[in-house]
Each structure stands twice: as C-alpha cells, then as structure tokens.
Amino acid sequence: MKRVFLLVLVSSFLVGMGMCAKYLQPATASSSAPSSGSGAQFTPDGRLIRPEGYRRWAYVSSGFGMSYNPEAGGNGAPAFTNVFVAPEAYDFFQAHGTWPDKTMFVLEIYGSSSHGSINQKGSYQESLVGLDVEVKDESRFPDKWAYFGFNNSAKTSSAMTPGKNACWNCHDQNAAVEHSFVQFYPELLKVAYAKGTIKPSVHLAMGMARLEELIQQQGWEKTEPAYDEVKRTDASSEILKEQPMNLLGYRLLSASKAQEAIGVFQRVVKDYPLSPNACDSLADAYFAAGNKEKAAEYSRKALELLGQDTTDNAQRRANIEKAAKDRLLKLQASN
Ligand code: HEC
Fold first, then answer.
1. Do residues 184 and 63 lie in contact, with contact meaning Cβ atoms separated by under 8 Å?
2. Residue 37 CB-density burial (10 A; 0-12 exposed, 13-18 middle, 19+ buried)
3. What pLDDT score was predicted for residue 218?
4. Residue 188: what are its φ and ψ, rounded to 5°?
5. Which of 89, 81, 82 is nearest to 65 (CA)?
C-alpha cells in the first residue's frame, strides 16, 4: 500500500514537471509483471528482442573463470560473467525468496585481460563476448523458463529448443532457487536461506559466509555440529582451513562476540594442535573476554609451540612471539 501511494506521488510530481507520461515506468506495485523498460519483449514471431538498458538493472554478482565443462576456458584467459536482473524482480526476491513470473536475467560474458595500464596482477574485463538470457514466463513457455543467446551484435534471438535443452536441464537440476544459481550470488543467498526457498534437491556446501551467519544467529555451540558435518563430508572445504577460521574468529572478536570467538579459536586449536598462532588467537579472545588465567595459559602455550614450529616463516614467528609476550606483560601488570 505504502509503495503504491509513493508511486502515485512520484508520478504526479513528474507530470507536474511537464514530463511525458511515457517516461513514467510504474514499478508495478504488485511486482508480478516487470515494467516494459525491463520486461522481456518479443517480435511478432516470438523472438526475444535483445534486452537494452540492463546495465541499469540490479547487479546480482559476477563469476570469474567459472566453468561447468572441464574443456572450457582452456585459452588461459578466463571469462567474467556479470548477472543482472530487473529491479522489480530483485525487490520481489528480497520479499519472497522466489522469482516473479516474467523475470528476465541477463548474463554478460566478458573476455578478460591481465596486461594493461598499470595492472601488474589480477584480471579485468575487456571485451564483450555475448549475452546469455533466461526468461521465466509461465504463459509463453510450456517449460516455464526459456533460454536465449546473443552474440555481440544480434538484435533478436529465438528460444533454445527443445524446451528442455542443455541450458534448461543444468539450471533445473543444479540451480539453488528455481532456475537461478543463487548459490553463487552472496546477497541473494542470504535471502534464500532466510526464506527457506533453496530447492531440497540441491546440496549446498557450507561456505564461510554461511558459517559466519549461523554463528551470528545461534552461536558457535549450536553451529559446531554443522562444522563437524563438513569435516566428515567435504575434507577440502575452505572452512576447515586454519587461516580463514582464524580470520572469522577475529571478525567475531571485533563484533564484540568474544564468547563466539573463543568457541571458534578453541576449535582451531583442537584441529591444529601444533599451531602457535591458533593458541595466540585463543589467548587474544580470552584476554578480550577478561579471562586472564586462560589468556596467560594460551599465551605461554603459543610461546612453547613456537620452539618446534616449522610451518610459519621467521617474520610470522617473530610476530606471534611479540604478541604473546606483550600480552603476558600486560597480564602481569594488571595483577
Ligand atoms: C552445466 C550447467 C549450465 C549450463 C549448461 C548452462 N548454465 Fe547458465 N548458469 C550456470 C551457472 C553455474 C550459473 C551461475 C553464474 C555464473 O556462471 O557466472 C549460470 C548462470 C546463468 C544466468 C544468470 C542467472 C541464473 O540463472 O543464475 C543465465 C541468464 C544463464 N546462466 C543462461 C544460460 C543459457 C542461455 C544457457 C545455454 C546456452 C546456460 N545458461 C547453460 C550453469 C549452466
């Protein structure tokens, strides 16, 4: 209701300014049918007209060198894929965790380069290769979702045939929400988790962002079983590595969640019992939580382990040693 009211206000303002009604693109308060500016348009014989103006839509995310085919991207210059969706559909997703009928996605494919201007490392987007487009339209397409491809210059494209083609099948089987690969779009993934709209048939490996979100919501103790599950089922997962977990602990610490940070660091100490840094981090968290005894115990443990440490380089060892010794001095001074 509020939104309709606002639109009416904005509209009368623009008309008052003498603007032509044609430019008033109602954002369709019901959100079920995107306005003509962002909705799919077809030629009389049913070909999709190349979507123009999508660069002003909501930016969903980008992939870099993503490949579902081991043969692809073999030229050594991985492509960027930038995904856009109309703002009305984006708003609808934020509210419901699903896509309204008439949603259209544009996936831009850009070739990459790593040599240019002042760039020494990393890759940037260089030349447009083409667009992959996906439209959800229950009345137009018997299989609900249809797929289109545009090269650099094509003005129209017919839907891929048959209806359940390779694009359709891969999206149907593997995409997290309906036909969209929300598992690769971090901001939308949070919404999908919150709304419970991830397809039960799609197994999503737990990433760091999700682990952190769970800890924020329910604490480490309740989250640890999910962590154990990853350990059992996906030994190469990023979240099992020492360094990302250590960083997560420090993020919790700076968010004033010392107890949760202690839980995370305790786990790192358990999984990496020879790591001086793990003990030093745990000591830091105890120190922040005001547990002086444990802070001293783990600072000493870190110093002890440094003696046999072969994984950290000299600089890192020196940093850990200084951090642990400084902490012990502070603890002594406060006693
Ligand atoms: C083997 C699986 C697979 C096939 C086949 C496939 N895609 Fe995708 N598609 C993906 C993945 C994974 C993404 C996630 C984003 C990325 O790669 O950047 C994606 C993303 C997209 C998106 C962005 C919106 C979304 O659904 O997340 C569009 C549009 C799209 N693909 C169109 C196509 C078209 C058109 C075809 C066929 C020509 C096709 N795809 C074939 C896996 C596939």
1. yes
2. middle
3. 95
4. -75, -30
5. 81
The larger pLDDT score, comparing residue 121 to residue 140, is at: 140
Does ligand 1 lie within 6 Å of residue 133's CB atom?
yes
Percent of the chain with pLDDT over 90: 78
Q: Which two tokens stand for residue 318?
A: 């020196």
Ligand 1 centroid from CA 228, angstroms: 32
Q: How far is CA 131 from CA 101, 144, 151, in A?
A: 21, 20, 6
Query: Would you state the structure tokens that stand for residue 268, as one six-digit string?
Result: 């790192």
Tell me the pLDDT tens digit for each residue of 86-114: 999 999 999 999 999 999 999 999 999 88
Q: Which domains does the chain have, with CATH numbers?
A: 1-29 (no CATH), 31-195 (3.50.70.20), 208-334 (1.25.40.10)
Q: Give long-range contacts, CB 8 A cutoff, 24+ apart: 258-265.
A: 258/285, 258/288, 258/289, 259/219, 259/220, 259/289, 260/215, 260/216, 260/219, 260/220, 261/285, 261/288, 262/286, 262/289, 263/215, 263/219, 263/220, 263/221, 263/224, 264/215, 264/220
pLDDT given at position 197:
98
**Residue 28 pLDDT more than 50?**
no
pTM of structure: 0.78
Rounded Cα–Cα distance for residues 89 and 31 (Å): 7
Residue type, 113: S
Residue 69 has pLDDT above 80, yes or no: no
333 lines ligand 1 (CB under 6 A): no
If you average pLDDT over every residue of the chain, what do you get?
88
**Separation between Cα atoms, residue 171 and residue 185, nearest integer Å:** 15
pLDDT at 25 over 80: no
Sheet holding 58-64, edge to edge: 58-64, 80-85, 104-113, 124-136, 145-151
Strands (E), the chain: 48-49, 58-64, 80-85, 104-113, 124-136, 145-151, 156-157
Query: For a pocket test of ligand 1, which of 125, 170, 172 has the largest count of ligand atoms closer than 8 A to its C-beta?
Result: 170
- CA-nearest residue for atom 22, ligand 1, is 107
63 lines ligand 1 (CB under 6 A): yes
